[in-house]
Amino acid sequence: MEYRRLGRAGVQVSSISLGSWLTYGSGNVETGIQCIKTAYDLGINLFDTANVYRRGEAEEVVGRALADIPRDTFVLATKVFFPMRDGPNGSGLSRKHIMEQCEASLRRLNVEYLDLYQCHRYDENTPLEETLRALDDLVTQGKVLYVGVSEWSAAQIDDAISIARELNLDQIMSNQPIYNLLERYIERDIIPLCEREGIGQIVFSPLAQGVLTGKYKPGQQPPSDSRASNSEVNAFMGGDLMSDRTLEAVQRLQSVAQQAGFSLPELALAWILRQPDVSSAIVGASRPEQVIQNARAADITLSDDILARVDEALGDVVQREA
Predict the structure, then answer these.
(1) Phi and psi at residue 201, in whole multiples of 5°?
(2) How far apart are the first and last CA of the chain?
(3) Which of 140, 224, 248, 280 could form a disulfide with 17, with the two C-beta atoms 3.0–4.6 Å apart?
(4) pLDDT tens-digit profile of 213-253?
(5) Sequence-separated (6 or more) residues with CB below 8 Å from residue 114
(6) Which residue ranges make up each domain of the chain?
């Protein structure tokens, strides 16, 4: 397993990390624990979750899985923003919500501190200074070591950098955006800004919600048990991602992977890891075998010839706008 610095921070994270969105909670607790332990045995040291994943259940599973592993040997990340209860103050990035939810996440994860605490989305209803001061206080208290954001625009990140610098508050160290072979909107503004400021990318959806596994075929309905067929979990599969022209390009890409001796997921993950600003790519897994397969990508080197064939296969289906 390869390890990389998280932006300009000194902490090192595995280039492949394990997420828990949709996969760990009621009904599959033991499988989730097996996946996490398998990942750790493979050298994966970054585990990402969020309070909103199954309303806290995912954090509880992650906490159980890591309970007997030395705390200083893994990097634990969670997030705050989305509703955790009905009514006012049950969501967002107010000081009240951040402080309360950090304490709740620490209890569910059964740890004394979080390595990385991330703002799951931007809060238009809370002054950015209030959010940044709350995060800075958590760092000062030792409950959080580093802070990050997820799915913020370049302008929002830039504002946070400026305010934190002006007020001498703890700076953002990571950004968690969608990034994969098909969706590259961060390349235009976000990556240049983060590269300049030393902010690392911990990317999610490196397999484009399963599209880059090749299981979706042009002209065919998605399998009934797939993510694309589930209206509760396919929110990130809009736009052109499931169009026939994109799926045809993915089939061409699959041929490139096979000729190179890789699976399509291995090729897609290896491409992500080749990007210099990516600190880690978050993969999901519903069984340990998937963790093992995805981890192989960390050892793959793509030649210039393969990269050129990848670009040729994809043509103009790559999405470069958010």
Answers:
(1) -100, 120
(2) 31
(3) 280
(4) 998 888 776 665 555 544 455 455 566 888 999 999 999 99
(5) 76, 77, 78, 102, 105, 106, 143, 144, 145
(6) 3-207+270-300
Distance CA 284, CA 17 (A): 9
CATH 3.20.20.100 fits 3-207+270-300, yes or no: yes
Residue 185 annotated in active site? no
For residue 133, the tally of other CB atoms under 10 A from its CB is 18
d(CA 106, CA 60): 10
CB-based burial of residue 294 (10 Å sphere; 0-12 exposed, 13-18 middle, 19+ buried)?
Answer: buried
**With contact defined as beta carbons under 8 Å apart, do 65 and 314 qualify?**
no
pTM above 0.85, yes or no: yes
Phi, psi (rounded to 5 degrees) for 58: -65, -40
Q: Is 296 exposed, middle or buried (0-12, 13-18, 19+ CB in 10 A)?
A: middle
Say which residue the tokens 């396919």 belong to: 234
Tell me: the pLDDT tens digits for 148-161?
A: 999 999 999 999 99
C-alpha dist (Å) from residue 140 to 13, 118, 145, 258: 22, 16, 9, 50
Please choose, from the candidates 268, 287, 211, the residue with its C-alpha nearest in 3D space to the C-alpha of residue 242.
211
